[in-house]
C-alpha cells in the first residue's frame, strides 16, 4: 500500500524593507571603521521612539480627563486624571511608542468602578518633554508622577512601562511602608536584555556593537543590563497582589518570557490570553473586566 504524505507548506518569508537593508549596510560599514561610531548610531535608534499619528479615539478619551504637568529637571511630564473624586488612585503606565490616551478604554472602565485614574505620557511620548527615552529615564518620570499623587493603590503597566516600573524599580507609598496593594502587568518583557538582542538581530549588528551597548548601560547606571530583567527583579517588587496577563500570540514579547516571569515570582497570578497579540490585550472586554475586578475588590 502506498502512503501519501502531505507536506506542510514552506513558511513564507516576508520581504525585508529596502530601508532596513540600507540601514543594516550603513551600520556594518560604520562598525568596520569604529565600534563606538556604530554603537552611537544604533543607540540613538534604540532610544528614539516614533511619534505615531493620533488615532481617532485618542482625543475623545483625553477630553474626559484633566491634564496636568509634573515638573522634572529635564522638563515637564504630562499626566491626565479621570474621576478625581475616586476613592483609590490607579496609575496607568504605557508602553513604547504609546501614550496616556491609549489607556482610554480602561480609564473609563476604572473610573466607572469608582476609582481615580491617572495616566502619564512617558518622556519623548505624547505631550511630555524630550525626544529620547531609556528605561531608567522612564522610571524617573513614573516616580515623579507617583510622588505627586501620594497614596497609590494600584498600577497597570504595559510592555516597556512594566519593565520601567518593576525592573528599575519605581517606589510607591514610601511614607506608608512602601507597599503597593495591587499591580497589573500586561505583555511585559521578562528580559530587557532579550529586547536589546532582538533589536540587534533586526539590524544585524556585529557582536562587538551589542557588547558595547551592554557596557554603556553599566557605565551609565552602575548596574548590568540583566539587573533590569523582570525574571530577576520581579519577585522583589513590594506588591501585595500582582497579576500578569500575556497573550500566547504576542509578536513583540515572546509568550515564553511571561512563563519565565511567572516561574521566578512566587505568588504572581499569571493568566494567559489567546489571539489578542501585544496591543489588543489593553482593550479586550474580558481582560478589562478582570483588571477592574482585581483593582476594585
From TrEMBL:
InterPro entries: AB_hydrolase_1, AB_hydrolase_fold
Any GO molecular function: hydrolase activity
Naturally occurring in which organism (per UniProt): Hymenobacter rubripertinctus
Keyword hit for Metal-binding: no
Keywords tagged on the record: Hydrolase
AB hydrolase-1 domain location: 90-289
Keyword Hydrolase: yes
Protein name as annotated: Alpha/beta hydrolase
Amino acid at each position: 500500500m502506498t502512503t501519501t504524505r502531505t507536506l506542510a507548506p514552506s513558511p513564507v518569508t516576508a520581504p525585508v524593507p529596502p530601508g532596513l537593508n540600507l540601514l543594516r549596510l550603513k551600520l556594518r560599514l560604520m562598525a568596520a571603521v569604529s565600534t563606538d561610531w556604530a554603537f552611537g548610531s544604533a543607540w540613538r535608534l534604540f532610544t528614539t521612539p516614533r511619534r505615531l499619528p493620533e488615532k481617532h479615539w485618542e482625543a475623545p478619551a483625553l477630553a474626559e480627563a484633566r491634564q496636568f504637568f509634573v515638573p522634572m529637571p529635564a522638563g515637564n511630564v504630562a499626566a491626565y486624571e479621570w474621576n478625581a473624586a475616586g476613592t483609590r488612585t490607579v496609575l496607568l503606565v504605557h508602553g513604547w511608542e504609546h501614550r496616556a490616551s491609549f489607556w482610554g478604554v480602561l480609564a473609563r472602565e476604572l473610573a466607572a468602578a469608582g476609582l481615580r485614574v491617572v495616566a502619564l505620557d512617558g518622556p519623548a511620548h505624547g505631550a511630555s518633554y524630550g525626544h529620547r527615552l531609556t528605561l531608567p529615564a522612564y522610571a524617573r518620570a513614573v516616580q515623579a508622577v507617583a510622588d505627586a499623587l501620594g497614596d497609590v493603590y494600584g498600577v497597570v503597566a504595559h510592555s516597556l512601562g512594566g519593565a520601567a516600573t518593576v525592573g528599575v524599580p519605581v517606589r510607591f507609598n514610601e511614607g506608608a511602608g512602601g507597599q503597593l496593594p495591587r499591580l497589573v502587568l500586561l505583555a511585559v518583557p521578562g528580559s530587557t536584555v532579550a529586547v536589546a538582542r532582538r533589536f540587534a538581530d533586526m539590524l544585524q549588528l556585529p557582536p562587538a556593537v551589542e557588547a558595547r551597548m551592554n557596557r554603556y548601560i553599566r557605565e551609565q547606571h552602575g548596574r548590568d543590563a540583566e539587573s533590569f530583567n523582570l525574571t530577576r527583579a520581579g519577585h522583589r517588587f513590594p506588591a501585595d497582589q500582582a497579576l500578569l496577563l500575556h497573550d500566547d500570540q504576542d509578536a513583540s514579547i515572546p509568550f515564553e518570557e511571561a512563563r519565565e516571569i511567572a516561574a521566578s515570582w512566587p505568588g504572581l497570578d499569571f493568566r494567559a490570553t489567546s489571539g489578542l497579540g501585544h496591543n489588543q490585550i489593553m482593550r479586550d472586554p474580558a481582560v478589562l473586566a478582570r483588571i477592574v475586578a482585581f483593582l476594585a475588590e
